[in-house]
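Support case: iron/sulfur cluster complex. Customer-provided input:
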Amino acid sequence: MPQCLHDQEGRGLRTESTPSDSLEDRQVQPETSPFRQATAKWIDPVTGQFRPRVMRVRSNSKNQRNILETVYGCTGALTNDGHGCPWGCYAVFTCKKLGADFATPVPQTLDRRVLLRDLRRVRQDWVRIGIMGDPCFAWTTTVEACEVVRESEKTPVVISRFWVPPSDDELRTLAKAGAVLHGSICALDSDSFLGPRVRVCQDYLRWGGRFVWRVVTFHFDDTTQTGLDLWDRQDHLMSGDFGGIDDLRPLVLETPARLMKGRKQRNPTWDHLGEWAYFKAPTTRDHRFTPHNHNWTAGVLYPERDACWVGCRKCTVQCLVPQNGEDSATLEDFLEW
Ligand code: SF4
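Agent response - structure generated as follows:
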C-alpha cells in the first residue's frame, strides 16, 4: 500500500520512495492514555506496538467476516508527511487516534487448526488479506495463510503495496494457492516506485497467477501543468497498458480515492487536486450512511473500466467502481446523495 511522492515541504513530486525513519512521526501516546488502556489486548501499552497474536478471521465496519490480517502495521505510515499512502491511509489515521505505533509492522501467528475452524464459518468464497497492515512484511506467514485459505476451498485475495517484494518461490506458491494479488498504485507514485511492482506483476502472471492493479484515482487540478501531467500519468495507469507480458494482462480496478481533509495536518496530495464532493460511507451494520465517516471523493473517473461485479450502492467496501458499466457512482451521484 503507500509511497511518498512529496518533498519535505509537501510540494511537488520526488523520485525517491523510501519510508523515512523519523521517530517523531510515530506519535506514540503515553502509556497512561485512556486509549492505551482500552486497546491493551492488541496493542502493547509500553511500546505502542501491535501484539503478535494468533490470526483469526474477522470483520470490521466496512467488511464482512472474511478478512484476515497476517501483519498489523506498515512502514509506509512514515511516508507522505506521515499520512501514509498519497490517498491518506485510514489505518494510519485510526492508529494515531489509538496511540498505536502503526509504522512498525508486526507479523501475526498462524495456527492452522484455529484458522481452518474460522474459515469454515466464512460465507463468502474469498478472504481478503491486508487491511490494518501490509502483508508484504511477512511473506512467509502470508503465503502459509493463503495455503490454508485455499485448503478451505476459498480464494485468498492479497492487497499490498509490495514494499517488500515476494521471492520467486513465494510467488510460485501463491499462484499454486490460487491467490489473487492486488497491487495498489496511483499516478502520484514515482517511476522508481512502480518499477519493482511491475516486475512482481509480470513474474506472477508468468507463474500463472492472477494480478489486479488497484489504481487509486484522483481528480487532479487541470489548471496547472503538474495537474495535467498527473492526469496523463493516471490515464496511462488506467489503460492497463503496462505491467503485462505479451498477451497476459492484469485486470485494472479503479478505486476512487476517498480523502480525509484533516483538521491538524493537511495531506500534501490536496495540493494537486481539483473537484471533490463530500459523502458519507455506509457501514456493514445497517448499510446506511453514518455521520462518522468523512470522505471526499471525485467518484468514478473511468466508467468504461469494469473489473468489478458488485453494485456500488450495495457494496460496503465502497471502491465506487461501476457494476458492468451500469452502476457507476460519479461526482453527480454523490452530490445527490
Ligand atoms: S497500510 Fe496500506 S494504505 Fe496504509 S500506509 Fe501501508 S501501504 Fe499505505
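The chain is about 25% helix and 15% strand.

Case will auto-close in a few days if no follow-up is received.
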